[in-house]
Design brief:
Blueprint: H1 17-26, H2 32-45, E1 55-63, E2 69-77, E3 84-90, H3 104-113, E4 117-121, H4 133-147, H5 149-152, E5 154-164, H6 166-181, E6 188-192, H7 215-226, E7 253-258, H8 264-276, E8 281-286, H9 293-296, H10 301-320
Parallel strand pairs: 3-4, 3-5, 5-6, 6-7, 7-8
Antiparallel strand pairs: 1-2, 2-4
């Protein structure tokens, strides 16, 4: 067993090597400055400018407690018939970067597999404010989705959450928060290579220099997200779901991770603890794959296999998983 996760070219899946090498050359790791530059670019060229091919798109705005507004991107089927599952899909980006529009490929894939309504929040990034700003935004969006289920054509007993990377981490935290607050029942969560553990003590998270996302990027992102909490024992499970002690009554879960990425071990441990708590879990590991491989190499054989895996899991959830909301 390796003590250090130094990822050389031969350890990467053959179909992912070239793109991984290019990415690692141009962005060896992320810094706060790079996060801010990418956000400025996305805000200028992505926000409000990219539409989903398989969905009608609209925006809604929800007031926060401080009077500011949270933007929601809402995607519904062009020929939606009757009520369908509602999915709160949370974008990734290390909690630090991104806009809902970067998730359009996921929107197209999910809606191409099963009729649904997808709500994607433009949550507060850590470059703007640390935890709990992003989580509270996502919870506000979840409440909005529940309260507007009727007008959006959503089945109230099929509220799903999901996301990739930090979006998966936020979805996992949101499931804990919703369980404990008792205001919304989540029927299913789909967490793609989720960002769960700020401690970075598990083997795959230490000294990992894989392409796309590595230990240096991970440490920088957690420092920004946690702010003054970083490095302390005071980090709550709602910030880093791997720190939770009680996983009972969590929603059925689908997750996946590549075996050479920093989040592999924490995802595997999260799956183990969910299973021990009695939660239904579907987990697939992808050998020799780095973080976000299905995004950067979606046309590769392994990228297609990952996409097919979570699309099938989503269809299964839409046909089998329900959670009744409590009457007010």
């Amino acid at each position: 067993m390796r003590k250090k996760w130094r990822i050389n070219r031969r350890m990467i899946h053959p179909k992912l090597r070239l793109r991984g090498s290019i990415i690692r050359f141009f962005i060896p790791h992320f810094t706060e400055k790079k996060f801010r530059i990418m956000n400025a670019f996305m805000d200028r060229f992505f926000k409000g400018k990219i539409k989903a091919r398989k969905a009608d798109c609209r925006e809604a705005y929800v007031k926060r407690a401080d009077g500011s507004e949270l933007r929601l991107c809402i995607y519904s089927g062009k020929n939606q018939m009757g009520k369908v599952p509602g999915v709160l899909w949370i974008h990734g980006g290390g909690y630090a970067i991104g806009v809902p529009e970067i998730e359009i490929p996921f929107v197209n894939r999910l809606m191409g597999k099963m009729d649904c309504v997808i709500v994607s929040p433009d949550y507060t990034r850590s470059t703007e404010a640390p935890y709990p700003a992003a989580l509270e935004d996502c919870y506000l969006a979840l409440l909005w989705m529940k309260d507007h289920a009727q007008e959006c054509g959503i089945r109230e007993n099929q509220l799903f959450t999901g996301g990739e990377s930090a979006g998966g981490g936020l979805a996992a935290a949101l499931s804990l928060l919703a369980r404990d607050r008792g205001e919304v029942a989540i029927a299913f969560q789909m967490l793609l290579y989720p960002m769960l553990d700020d401690r970075m003590v598990m083997e795959s998270a230490r000294n990992n220099d894989a392409p796309v996302w590595n230990t240096k990027s991970n440490a920088c992102a957690w420092k920004l997200y946690l702010g003054e909490l970083y490095g302390s024992d005071e980090v709550p499970a709602y910030a880093a779901p791997a720190r939770a002690h009680d996983y009972r009554n969590m929603p059925p879960t689908c997750t996946m991770a590549g075996t050479i990425e920093p989040f592999f071990d924490e995802t595997r441990e999260y799956v183990k603890r969910l299973k021990e708590s009695g939660t239904k879990v579907r987990f697939k590991k992808f050998p020799e794959c780095y973080h976000g491989f299905d995004i950067v190499a979606s046309k590769s054989s392994v990228g297609k296999a990952a996409i097919q895996y979570y699309r099938n899991a989503f269809r299964y959830a839409a046909e089998h998983f329900f959670a009744e909301q409590k009457k007010r």
